[in-house]
TrEMBL record:
Allows the formation of correctly charged Asn-tRNA(Asn) or Gln-tRNA(Gln) through the transamidation of misacylated Asp-tRNA(Asn) or Glu-tRNA(Gln) in organisms which lack either or both of asparaginyl-tRNA or glutaminyl-tRNA synthetases. The reaction takes place in the presence of glutamine and ATP through an activated phospho-Asp-tRNA(Asn) or phospho-Glu-tRNA(Gln). InterPro entries: Asp/Glu-ADT_sf_sub_c, GatC. One of its GO terms (biological process) is regulation of translational fidelity. This is Asp-tRNA(Asn)/Glu-tRNA(Gln) amidotransferase subunit GatC. Signal peptide: none annotated. Heterotrimer of A, B and C subunits. It comes from Hominilimicola fabiformis. The gene is gatC.
Length: 92
């Protein structure tokens, strides 16, 4: 399926360099990834999407409106607050 020659070729195309040990490990990893993808391909997609739902929507709780926690209470211990929001340093 996936051999070291193919791994070498892909590494060359990707401008990657591997030691022999790393090449062997990468080949094993790629073989495992392809095996997983082959397993995914076996998934039966002929069923409608709704039939695949694991949740029975009638069993969910009803949405209930509740008041939120008071903003003043949330920000009372913050060091820096502006317009009822936490002020944090800008990170670029």
């Amino acid at each position: 399926m996936f051999n070291s020659d193919l791994t070498k070729h892909l590494a060359e195309l990707s401008k990657l360099e591997f030691t022999d040990e790393e090449l062997e490990q990468m080949t094993a990893d790629m073989t495992n990834i392809i095996a997983i993808m082959d397993k995914v391909c076996e998934f039966d997609t002929s069923k409608p999407a709704y039939a695949l739902d694991a949740v029975d929507y009638k069993d969910l709780r009803a949405d209930e409106h509740r008041n939120s926690y008071p903003t003043e209470e949330i920000v009372k211990n913050a060091k820096n607050v502006k317009n009822n929001s936490f002020v944090v340093p800008k990170v670029v």
